[in-house]
Amino acid sequence: MKHINTQQLTEMNNRYRAHLINSLSGFKSANLIGSVNTQGQTNVAMFSSVIHLGASPALVGFIIRPASVPRHTLDNILETKQYTINQVSEEFYIQAHQTSARYSREHSEFQQTGLQEQYIHGYDAPFVKESMLKYALTLREIVPIALNNTQLVIGEITDILCPETVIQEEGYIDIESLKTTSISGLDNYHTSHRLSRLSYAKTDSMPRSIALDGAKIATTS
Predict the structure, then answer these.
(1) What residue ranges are annotated as transmembrane (predicted)?
(2) Architecture category of domain 26-195 in CATH
Protein backbone atom coordinates (compact mmCIF):
# COMPACT_ATOMS: atom_id res chain seq x y z
CA MET A 1 0.00 0.00 0.00
CA LYS A 2 1.38 3.42 -0.97
CA HIS A 3 2.17 5.80 1.90
CA ILE A 4 2.05 9.53 1.11
CA ASN A 5 3.38 11.81 3.85
CA THR A 6 3.02 15.53 4.55
CA GLN A 7 6.24 16.47 2.76
CA GLN A 8 5.18 14.61 -0.38
CA LEU A 9 1.79 16.33 -0.31
CA THR A 10 3.45 19.73 -0.01
CA GLU A 11 5.77 19.07 -2.95
CA MET A 12 3.08 17.78 -5.31
CA ASN A 13 1.95 19.62 -8.43
CA ASN A 14 -1.07 21.72 -7.43
CA ARG A 15 -3.47 20.10 -9.90
CA TYR A 16 -2.32 16.58 -9.01
CA ARG A 17 -2.78 17.33 -5.30
CA ALA A 18 -6.25 18.76 -5.93
CA HIS A 19 -7.36 15.58 -7.73
CA LEU A 20 -5.83 13.39 -5.04
CA ILE A 21 -7.25 15.18 -2.00
CA ASN A 22 -10.69 15.66 -3.58
CA SER A 23 -10.89 11.88 -4.06
CA LEU A 24 -10.34 11.08 -0.38
CA SER A 25 -13.80 12.03 0.89
CA GLY A 26 -15.47 9.44 -1.34
CA PHE A 27 -18.67 9.91 -3.32
CA LYS A 28 -20.17 13.40 -2.97
CA SER A 29 -23.60 14.66 -3.94
CA ALA A 30 -23.89 16.51 -7.26
CA ASN A 31 -26.07 19.60 -6.95
CA LEU A 32 -26.79 22.72 -8.95
CA ILE A 33 -27.31 25.87 -6.90
CA GLY A 34 -29.61 28.41 -8.55
CA SER A 35 -29.59 32.09 -7.62
CA VAL A 36 -30.52 35.52 -8.96
CA ASN A 37 -29.39 39.07 -8.21
CA THR A 38 -31.61 42.08 -7.60
CA GLN A 39 -31.40 42.99 -11.31
CA GLY A 40 -32.89 39.64 -12.32
CA GLN A 41 -29.65 38.11 -13.66
CA THR A 42 -29.77 34.37 -12.97
CA ASN A 43 -26.90 32.04 -12.14
CA VAL A 44 -26.62 28.29 -11.72
CA ALA A 45 -23.47 26.49 -10.61
CA MET A 46 -22.32 22.97 -9.77
CA PHE A 47 -21.41 22.18 -6.16
CA SER A 48 -20.23 18.89 -4.64
CA SER A 49 -20.00 20.22 -1.07
CA VAL A 50 -23.67 20.29 -0.06
CA ILE A 51 -24.17 18.74 3.40
CA HIS A 52 -27.07 18.02 5.75
CA LEU A 53 -26.81 20.03 8.99
CA GLY A 54 -30.09 19.28 10.74
CA ALA A 55 -33.75 18.40 10.29
CA SER A 56 -35.37 20.71 12.85
CA PRO A 57 -34.87 23.38 11.74
CA ALA A 58 -34.19 22.00 8.25
CA LEU A 59 -30.65 23.25 7.59
CA VAL A 60 -28.31 22.54 4.68
CA GLY A 61 -24.81 23.90 4.14
CA PHE A 62 -22.32 24.18 1.31
CA ILE A 63 -18.77 25.49 0.94
CA ILE A 64 -17.85 28.61 -1.04
CA ARG A 65 -14.31 28.96 -2.36
CA PRO A 66 -11.98 31.86 -1.43
CA ALA A 67 -12.58 35.34 -2.82
CA SER A 68 -9.59 35.00 -5.17
CA VAL A 69 -12.06 33.75 -7.82
CA PRO A 70 -15.45 35.24 -8.85
CA ARG A 71 -18.25 34.06 -6.58
CA HIS A 72 -21.44 34.98 -8.41
CA THR A 73 -23.48 32.47 -6.41
CA LEU A 74 -22.47 33.97 -3.07
CA ASP A 75 -22.92 37.54 -4.30
CA ASN A 76 -26.47 36.74 -5.42
CA ILE A 77 -27.33 34.99 -2.17
CA LEU A 78 -26.05 37.92 -0.13
CA GLU A 79 -28.24 40.28 -2.20
CA THR A 80 -31.50 38.32 -2.12
CA LYS A 81 -31.08 35.84 0.78
CA GLN A 82 -32.62 33.17 -1.48
CA TYR A 83 -31.28 30.21 -3.47
CA THR A 84 -32.24 26.73 -4.65
CA ILE A 85 -30.46 23.39 -4.54
CA ASN A 86 -31.21 20.98 -7.39
CA GLN A 87 -29.98 17.38 -7.47
CA VAL A 88 -28.32 16.31 -10.72
CA SER A 89 -29.51 13.17 -12.51
CA GLU A 90 -27.86 11.21 -15.30
CA GLU A 91 -30.07 12.83 -17.96
CA PHE A 92 -28.34 16.21 -17.67
CA TYR A 93 -25.05 15.68 -15.80
CA ILE A 94 -22.96 16.92 -18.74
CA GLN A 95 -24.88 20.20 -18.88
CA ALA A 96 -24.61 20.45 -15.10
CA HIS A 97 -20.84 19.98 -15.23
CA GLN A 98 -20.58 22.68 -17.89
CA THR A 99 -21.94 25.25 -15.41
CA SER A 100 -18.54 25.11 -13.68
CA ALA A 101 -17.00 26.96 -16.64
CA ARG A 102 -16.02 30.53 -15.78
CA TYR A 103 -18.77 32.45 -17.52
CA SER A 104 -18.95 36.19 -16.94
CA ARG A 105 -21.61 37.55 -14.61
CA GLU A 106 -23.61 38.83 -17.61
CA HIS A 107 -23.93 35.34 -19.13
CA SER A 108 -26.40 33.09 -17.33
CA GLU A 109 -25.32 29.46 -17.16
CA PHE A 110 -28.93 28.51 -17.85
CA GLN A 111 -28.69 30.05 -21.32
CA GLN A 112 -25.14 28.86 -21.94
CA THR A 113 -25.87 25.20 -21.12
CA GLY A 114 -29.48 24.84 -22.24
CA LEU A 115 -30.79 24.12 -18.75
CA GLN A 116 -34.24 25.56 -18.07
CA GLU A 117 -35.31 27.90 -15.28
CA GLN A 118 -38.35 27.05 -13.16
CA TYR A 119 -40.08 29.22 -10.57
CA ILE A 120 -42.64 28.89 -7.79
CA HIS A 121 -45.00 31.59 -6.57
CA GLY A 122 -43.47 34.07 -4.15
CA TYR A 123 -39.87 32.96 -4.69
CA ASP A 124 -37.37 34.75 -6.94
CA ALA A 125 -34.48 32.28 -7.14
CA PRO A 126 -34.66 29.86 -10.09
CA PHE A 127 -34.97 26.11 -9.84
CA VAL A 128 -33.53 23.80 -12.51
CA LYS A 129 -36.54 22.41 -14.36
CA GLU A 130 -34.73 19.20 -15.34
CA SER A 131 -34.01 18.28 -11.70
CA MET A 132 -36.45 15.84 -10.11
CA LEU A 133 -35.50 16.68 -6.50
CA LYS A 134 -34.98 20.32 -5.58
CA TYR A 135 -35.60 22.70 -2.73
CA ALA A 136 -35.63 26.40 -1.92
CA LEU A 137 -33.66 27.92 0.92
CA THR A 138 -33.40 31.15 2.87
CA LEU A 139 -29.92 32.25 3.95
CA ARG A 140 -29.45 31.89 7.72
CA GLU A 141 -25.72 32.17 8.42
CA ILE A 142 -22.30 32.31 6.78
CA VAL A 143 -19.41 30.84 8.78
CA PRO A 144 -15.88 31.85 7.70
CA ILE A 145 -13.23 29.11 7.76
CA ALA A 146 -9.96 30.91 8.47
CA LEU A 147 -7.70 27.94 7.65
CA ASN A 148 -8.27 28.24 3.88
CA ASN A 149 -10.46 31.35 3.50
CA THR A 150 -13.52 29.35 2.45
CA GLN A 151 -17.00 29.92 3.87
CA LEU A 152 -19.77 27.61 5.03
CA VAL A 153 -23.09 28.94 3.74
CA ILE A 154 -26.04 27.74 5.82
CA GLY A 155 -29.62 27.92 4.59
CA GLU A 156 -33.01 26.84 5.91
CA ILE A 157 -35.22 24.80 3.58
CA THR A 158 -38.58 26.45 2.87
CA ASP A 159 -39.97 24.46 -0.08
CA ILE A 160 -39.32 20.97 -1.52
CA LEU A 161 -40.26 19.78 -5.02
CA CYS A 162 -40.13 16.09 -5.97
CA PRO A 163 -42.41 13.32 -7.30
CA GLU A 164 -44.75 12.15 -4.55
CA THR A 165 -44.09 8.52 -5.47
CA VAL A 166 -40.46 8.62 -4.30
CA ILE A 167 -41.33 9.61 -0.73
CA GLN A 168 -41.66 6.48 1.39
CA GLU A 169 -44.19 6.04 4.19
CA GLU A 170 -41.79 7.11 6.95
CA GLY A 171 -40.26 10.00 4.97
CA TYR A 172 -37.27 8.41 3.26
CA ILE A 173 -36.77 9.71 -0.29
CA ASP A 174 -35.70 7.06 -2.80
CA ILE A 175 -33.16 9.19 -4.67
CA GLU A 176 -31.79 6.20 -6.59
CA SER A 177 -35.09 5.86 -8.47
CA LEU A 178 -34.55 9.44 -9.71
CA LYS A 179 -31.22 8.39 -11.30
CA THR A 180 -29.41 10.83 -9.05
CA THR A 181 -25.69 11.16 -9.72
CA SER A 182 -22.72 11.56 -7.40
CA ILE A 183 -19.20 12.90 -7.91
CA SER A 184 -15.81 11.48 -6.99
CA GLY A 185 -12.72 13.63 -7.21
CA LEU A 186 -13.25 16.74 -9.30
CA ASP A 187 -14.84 15.40 -12.46
CA ASN A 188 -15.98 11.77 -12.22
CA TYR A 189 -19.75 11.19 -12.25
CA HIS A 190 -21.50 8.05 -10.99
CA THR A 191 -24.92 6.51 -10.57
CA SER A 192 -25.63 4.33 -7.55
CA HIS A 193 -26.52 0.70 -6.90
CA ARG A 194 -28.39 0.12 -3.64
CA LEU A 195 -27.12 -2.65 -1.38
CA SER A 196 -29.98 -2.46 1.14
CA ARG A 197 -31.59 -0.43 3.86
CA LEU A 198 -30.60 -1.60 7.33
CA SER A 199 -32.51 -1.65 10.59
CA TYR A 200 -31.65 0.72 13.44
CA ALA A 201 -28.34 -0.33 15.03
CA LYS A 202 -28.64 -1.72 18.57
CA THR A 203 -25.99 -2.99 20.94
CA ASP A 204 -27.58 -6.42 21.43
CA SER A 205 -28.01 -7.43 17.78
CA MET A 206 -26.61 -6.92 14.31
CA PRO A 207 -28.67 -4.89 11.82
CA ARG A 208 -30.96 -6.64 9.34
CA SER A 209 -32.02 -5.66 5.84
CA ILE A 210 -35.37 -3.87 5.74
CA ALA A 211 -37.73 -3.09 2.89
CA LEU A 212 -37.36 0.14 0.96
CA ASP A 213 -40.41 1.63 2.68
CA GLY A 214 -38.96 0.71 6.08
CA ALA A 215 -42.21 -0.93 7.14
CA LYS A 216 -41.12 -4.57 7.35
CA ILE A 217 -38.15 -6.88 7.23
CA ALA A 218 -37.14 -7.58 3.65
CA THR A 219 -37.14 -11.20 2.56
CA THR A 220 -33.88 -12.65 1.31
CA SER A 221 -33.37 -15.55 -1.06
Answers:
(1) none
(2) Roll (2.30)
Find how far residue 165's CA is from the centre of its chain: 22
pLDDT tens for each residue of the chain, 221 residues long: 999 999 999 999 999 999 999 999 999 999 999 999 999 999 999 999 999 999 999 999 999 988 877 789 999 999 999 999 999 999 999 999 999 999 988 899 999 999 999 999 999 999 999 999 999 999 999 999 999 999 999 999 999 999 999 999 899 999 999 999 999 999 999 999 999 889 989 999 999 888 888 766 545 44
50 close to 8: Cβ distance less than 8 angstroms: no
Q: CA 153 to CA 145: how far, in whole Å?
A: 11
Q: How far apart are CA 11 and CA 164, in angstroms?
A: 51
Q: Are 73 and 83 in contact (CB under 8 A)?
A: yes
**Total-model pTM:** 0.93
